[in-house]
Write a structure and sequence with these properties.
The longest helix has 26 residues, at 345-370. This protein is of the alpha/beta class. Helix 2 (17-28) packs across helix 3, helix 2 runs parallel beside helix 7 (148-159) and helix 4 (61-75) runs parallel beside helix 5 (87-102). It has 23 helices and 19 strands. A six-stranded parallel beta sheet has the order 3-2-4-5-7-6, sandwiched between helices. Strands 15-14-16-17-19-18 form a six-stranded parallel beta sheet, with helices on both faces. Strand 6 (138-141), helix 7 and strand 7 (167-172) form a beta-alpha-beta unit. The protein binds thiamine diphosphate. Thiamine diphosphate is lined by residues 400-403, 426-429, 452-455, 478, 480, 482-486. Thiamine diphosphate (TPP) is lined by residues 400-403, 426-429, 452-455, 478, 480, 482-486.
């Protein structure tokens, strides 16, 4: 018999906090939440089921937060992780912090003890908002059930203010579980609660940059991560081709130009920045990766374009600063300069030739190590084999210390959006969660991930999640049974007898670990075995780990120079 009671009719018009949260996630286009369960947050799961949002459960909250970060980077949409109160939220702190430094728009929702038990010592109660405030663009408590959807929308709005970044919301258990009349709760509609505006840059400054680029004899441009964030690939390509400018790429900007493109440069960067008369920096701060700006010629005219006003001119004087979205600014500059360059004359041509020679010289110097047949395997040989293995559809993820420093010099993604690293926080352990996000956000891509054995150990148990969700990828562990990047610094500072303190790992057979969890795994000890093993991993159709035993006494030049501390 149909239940037609008064109570039942009233219930139909009531909605809980968790269901309101799910409606707001849906309105933002969130297709998946990454989570590890807890009693404080289960009503959000229930709402997600109703809204058709996938609930992907992982083995550690750090993984959930990194996966949300990765998802945001790859889709341009916000990622979302939902974790329980107390330890669930503290476990996710590292992932949020990483997204903060990497300018990644993700929302972390944390549970909280009931409002009615505020500061009474309820289960898992902690001051989450205080903890999250310094590492987010916005952190708040949802004070009332009727505000749940509205505040999720508010958090998303804040994620996109200036350069993007993470937001945090905690929702007390009684606020989440309570039901309110549906017509009393604002549920912001898709596209109606935040602006779609991108900043175009001041037209006068755009004109000034166009003039500088026309007049320069030795220009160079660095395409940083915001080139990808702003989806400025086409605008950047058009600019360098129209204005005859050599381009260097870093972070997520890698792959903007494919290897082999006449304007793609990599190994001659230091030479170019020491000798250029005009350097244009697009969407990357003067942080440690840029020697705080000190590695640019003091005589060069320096122009900085960034989404964040606070980044422009930070740590180093600039001659022109433009706040705006890289796609709009670069397109406008090309337009303002078009027809005025005519190839840039002989001097420009000579400059490009000079850089090509510097590029070739650096490559020739490195070639013997890239092709080394030495046993144990030289890390350069491993990363060179990986580079050759990548196709246009391969998304490359680097997670480790020294081995990833090696790969940064050699691995060249063949298309934009095909490079992921932690970003300036340098967080080890992003690899497995980034694989998870990448396989879900971009199922069309093959994912190839290189791990240091130390880095893999941090979040490696979620390899099981990749098996459970049937997400095949090619994983490679550069196994040196050490935390080598740190070991080198200890050796240099304290000598050989003390170089082994706190950095030695076991000889772990990660291939067996992969097989134990239901994936594909094999071990490699000889250089000639690398490529066939990678091919078999690709063909396996499973999450895989190729455990490559590499020379523990080989260090990357960047590690030996300790450039990250300079
Ligand atoms: C979460 C985290 N903990 C510690 C560090 C410091 N750290 C930087 S590199 C490194 C060594 C990493 O070892 P591994 O992944 O095996 O790579 P290897 O340097 O041996 O190639 C460590 C511990 C960090 N960056 N992130």
């Amino acid at each position: 018999m149909p239940d037609d009671s008064q109570e039942s009719r009233e219930n139909q018009d009531l909605i809980s906090g968790g269901h309101l949260v799910a409606k707001a996630l849906k309105a933002e286009g969130v297709e998946v939440i990454y989570t590890l369960c807890g009693g404080h947050i289960i009503d959000i799961y229930d709402g997600c089921v109703d809204e058709g949002i996938d609930v992907v459960d992982v083995r550690h909250e750090q993984v959930a937060a990194h996966a949300a970060d990765g998802y945001a980077r790859l889709t341009g949409k916000p990622g979302c992780a939902v974790v329980t109160a107390g330890p669930g939220t503290t476990d996710a702190v590292t992932g949020v912090a990483n997204a903060f430094r990497a300018e990644s728009p993700m929302l972390l929702i944390g549970g909280q003890g009931a409002h009615t038990q505020h500061k009474m010592g309820s289960l898992q109660d902690l001051p989450h908002v205080d903890m999250m405030t310094p590492i987010t663009k916005f952190a708040a408590t949802v004070p009332d059930t009727a505000r749940a959807a509205d505040m999720v929308s508010m958090a998303f709005r804040e994620c996109y203010h200036g350069a993007p970044g993470p937001s945090f919301l905690e929702i007390p258990r009684d606020v989440l579980d309570a039901k309110v009349p549906a017509d009393k709760a604002r549920v912001p509609k898709t596209g109606n609660y935040r602006a779609s505006t991108r900043q175009a840059g001041d037209p006068d400054d755009v004109q000034k940059l166009a003039d500088l680029l026309v007049q320069a004899e030795r220009p160079a441009i660095l395409l940083g991560s915001q080139t990808w964030t702003c989806r400025a690939t086409e605008a950047a390509k058009e600019l360098v081709r129209t204005l005859n400018v050599p381009a260097y790429m870093n972070g997520a900007g890698r792959g903007t130009l494919p290897p082999g493109d006449p304007y793609h440069f990599q190994l001659s960067r230091r030479y170019a920045f020491s000798n250029a008369d005009l350097i244009v920096i697009v969407g990357t701060p003067f942080d440690f990766r840029m020697g705080y700006g000190k590695r640019l010629s003091p005589d060069a005219t320096v122009v900085q374009i960034d989404l964040d006003y606070r980044t422009v001119g930070k740590n180093r004087d600039i001659d022109l600063g433009i706040v705006g979205s890289a796609d709009l600014v670069l397109s406008a500059v090309t337009q303002a300069a078009s027809g005025r360059l005519n190839g840039g004359g002989d001097k420009r041509k000579a400059w490009l030739e000079e850089l090509r020679t510097a590029e070739q010289t650096a490559l020739d110097k490195r070639l013997p190590q890239l092709r080394s047949d030495a046993s144990p395997i030289h890390p350069y040989r491993l990363v060179s084999e990986i580079n050759d293995f990548l196709t246009e559809d391969s998304l490359y993820i680097g997670d480790g210390g020294d081995i990833v420093t090696f790969s940064g010099q050699v691995v060249q993604p063949k298309a934009p959006g095909n490079w992921m690293d932690p970003g300036p926080l340098g967080t080890l352990g992003v690899g497995v969660p980034f694989v998870l996000a990448a396989k879900q956000a971009r199922p069309d891509k093959e994912v190839v991930a290189l791990f240091g054995d130390g880095a893999f150990s941090l979040t490696g148990w979620d390899f099981e999640t990749l098996v459970r969700y049937d997400l095949p990828f090619v994983g490679i562990v550069g196994n040196n049974s050490s935390m080598n990047q740190i070991r080198y610094g200890q050796k240099a500072k304290y000598g050989e007898e003390r170089e082994r303190v706190g950095n030695t790992l076991g000889d772990v057979p990660y291939d067996e670990f992969a097989r134990m969890l239901g994936g594909h795994g094999e071990a490699v000890r000889e250089p000639s075995e690398i490529r066939p093993a990678l091919e078999r991993a690709r063909a396996s159709g499973k999450p895989s780990l190729v455990n490559v035993w590499i020379d523990p006494d080989a260090y990357a030049p960047g590690t030996m120079n300790q450039t990250m501390y300079k």
